[in-house]
Amino acid sequence: MSYELIGMVVLWTFLFGYVIVASVDFGAGFFNAYSLITGKQHVLTKVIQRYLSPVWEVTNVFLVFFFVGIIGFFPSTAYYYGSILLIPVSISIILLAIRGSYYAFETYGNKGHRGYAFMYGATGLILPASLSVVLTISEGGFVDMTDNGPFLDYWALFSSPLTWSIVVLSVSAVLYISAVFLTWYANRAGDFKATKLLRRYALIWALPTIVTAGGIVYELRSHNPEHFESLMNLWWMFAISLVFFLFSVWFIWKKKNYGMAFLLLIGQFAFAFYAYGISKYPYLLYPHLTVYDGVTNDAMAISLIVAFVAGLLLLIPSLYLLMRLFLFDDKYVSGKK
Amino acid sequence: MLLFEDPVFSSRMLTLLTLTFHVIFATLGVGLPLMIMIAQWVGIKKNDLHYIMMARRWARGFVVLVAVGVVTGTAIGLQLALLWPNFMELAGHVIALPLFMEVFAFFFEAIFLGIYLYTWDRFENQRKHLLLLVPVAVGATMSAFFITTVNGFMNAPAGFNIVDGQMTGVSPIEAMFNVATPTKVAHVISTAFMTAAFVLAAIAAYRLIRGSNHVYHKKALHMTMKLGLIFAVATAIIGDFSGKYLAEHQPEKLAAAEWHFETEEEAPLILWGILDDDQEVRYGIEIPYALSILAHNDPTAEVIGLNEYPEEEHPPMFVHYLFDIMITIGMWMIALSLAYWFAMRRGWNFVKKNWFRWLIVLGGPLSMLAIQAGWWMTEFGRQPWILRGVMTVQEAATQSNYVGHMFFLFAGLYLILGIGVAVVLRKVFKNHPVEKELAEQGGDQS
To answer: Where are the bilayer-spanning segments (chain A) (predicted)?
Structure first.
């Protein structure tokens, strides 16, 4: 395998990890805030807080891994994306900052403060929207190359239906992923009221997720025909993804196998996410930058891979410990510890 | 307004703003875990609940600071690419390795910090709980190490060649272990420990002034002042090595910091003063031979002057004051903590007077100011370069027209975060006074 491919596989996997972990987190924040408005906080807050408390820093690290890694493996992305993303990424940073710090303030300082909870919930919806813009830009058509470097055409970006479909998909996917995960988590905690409510949320958000996902594929046909064509060559991956989706909705509908439903959901998103990634390869920024132009030198690639493997050897046991203590310890989950 | 017209200037100002804010939390984030670990260890050793309580309370404050450190660290990580895209493209080829490893180190720290915080009462054996702090402290220190190697690389680029505009012979390890790395890393880590100790001492002294006569605060003050003294002395020794590094490898930075214009032997060290148009220093404090000693350990050695360098490569002259602030505060903190330690041994009473305790309170913010002055000095002192001798800040900056707007957006963010931290920390400790908490733990020996 070439270094470009190894680098891309690793980075794409981290981004996928972030999508799942962050979705659970973003959605949990939203449901928590929503339950405060509708007066159902006694049902939800406990189970959500119980899950969020020990893992929130971990979520952020996935994102940092991705962007530090992509600059390491493909330094040219720093030049292209660095030049055009000043405003959208700055806004994302500010939202992430508000979210992260206010969560910590609430948890460690001022328990039960409604303002913090609302802030946490609102940023949970705006963040996926603002981050997903980066994916839209990478589809090409929004960047002008000038003598002074690349510039982003904001008008073209915000008047494109593709942009808004991706925004809608990101938000509904966040709510869907989060609701399915929390249904399982609440069920494990033996909190059946919360399970019932979250199950309803999961069913509500299943349909918009799959409909917008289909719509985006359709829009790509006119926006980026080349990408659309390579997407179609991977139709079987999307078909598998769809089957997984149907099974997980079925389980949730039938109120059984919530754990399996969540695993199937991960499978569903994994197939769709990797199919999208593979179909886009080798473009990093369509049509200006490919992985071949952007890749780093061999010495750096090798040392990054070595560092990555060594890092994983250190992290996986630590993460296992964290999970065992908080996620999979039934006594902790149900609040007895 | 220049902020809106010149993207290079506004990029520099936004980086200055973010780093200045981040450094407060990064410094305490590196320094505090060691203090917490020492306190808990002493508590277990002496079987003294007060020290355990120190660890517990400091950890509670630490986690709030870490949260802000994480988000501002994410901000500066992304801003490096947003504001200096050309630099990051080049740097990505050579110095991406430690940036990448820093994330691992932080991840490691975050995982164990999470576990540590939520398991205070889950272990029968306190020692096992203390063990969880080791990866936290190691992770924090390694983060500082990795990031500082990147700063070292900016000052002393190594591990690559540029032939006809093409980069060849890249060695990430050589880039990481550049000549600036040893002194810089040692300096950053020891000052972080020193600052964390003096900030904690300032809090303890403040509580004592405010009328709490609890032995808990006295123990905290005593321990942190001693630790502060140790790390302040270590910092002074490392600072001497830093001087020698600068004289050897970045003489223009040392010369600018010292207002040393003509290359000469037996060079004196000048503190403070005013510079006139003819490169003459007035009202300064002159210490004969001291610059030659600092630079080469030899009172007669020759020290290179700034005029050896073309004028467009001169750093701004105000770095001299930043250098002086750093040095003066460092010396003052050694004197203060030494006086405290000596007087406590001798049983002299003046250290227990309020005026002396106020000096200790002042020492906390002063130490933080010294950290800031040191970072400002090293960054302004590298100007006009972002990568010394290879790339200037002018060449590195983004062309975007909106950096000025982002500056105000981020200034607003940091203001809100700053106020938030202050309010939350006050609340955390006000709602849980130490007396009450000790009573709850059921073993107040005093």
So the answer is: 6-34, 55-74, 80-105, 117-142, 162-186, 198-218, 234-253, 260-279, 299-322
DSSP β-bridge partners for residue B387: B391
Asked if the ipTM is above 0.95, the reply is: no
Instruction: Count Cα atoms within 13 angstroms, Cβ side, for B242.
Output: 24
Check B74 against A90: CB less than 8 A apart: no
Using CA atoms, how far apart are residues A24 and A186, in angstroms rounded to an integer? 13
Residue B386 lies in a domain: no
Residues 137-156 of B with CB under 8 A from A: none
Pick from B83, B172, B398: CB nearest A299: B172
Residue where one domain finishes, among candidates B336, B356, B381: B381
Residues B16 and B118 in one domain: yes
Q: State phi, psi for A305 to the nearest 5 degrees.
A: -65, -45
Looking at the structure, do residues B194 and B314 belong to the same domain, yes or no?
yes
- Whether residue A90 lies within 8 A of chain B, CB to CB, comes out as yes
Q: Mind listing the pLDDT tens digit for each residue in A139-180?
A: 888 888 888 788 888 888 888 888 898 898 899 999 999 999
Q: Same structural domain for residues B191 and B164?
A: no
Same-domain check for residues B160 and B39: yes
Low-confidence ranges of chain B (pLDDT < 50): 444-446
Number of domains in chain B: 2
Residues B191, B169, single domain; the answer is: no
In chain A, what are the domain boundaries?
A: 3-333
- Closest approach of A94 to chain B, Cα-based (Å): 7
Cβ–Cβ gap A307/B104 under 8 Å: yes
Nearest alpha-carbon partner for B147 in B82, B90, B103: B103
Q: Which of A303, A324, A336, A337 to mutate to test the interface with B (most CBs of B within 10 A)?
A: A303
Q: Are residues B320 and B263 in the same domain?
A: yes
pLDDT for res B39: 94
Q: How far apart are the first and last CA of chain B?
A: 61
Contacting residues of B for A82, CB less than 8 Å apart: 81-85, 88-89, 398
Pairs from B242-245 (Cβ < 8 Å, separation ≥ 24): B242/B183, B242/B184, B242/B187, B243/B294, B243/B295, B244/B294, B244/B295, B244/B296, B244/B297, B245/B179, B245/B180, B245/B182, B245/B183
Strand positions, DSSP E, B246-381: 264-265, 269-271, 274-275, 281-282, 285-287, 302-303
Domain extent at residue B245: 187-249+251-381
- Judged by CB atoms closer than 8 Å, whether chains meet at B99 and A78 is answered as no
> Do B304 and B207 reside in the same domain of the chain?
yes
Same domain, B204 and B340: yes
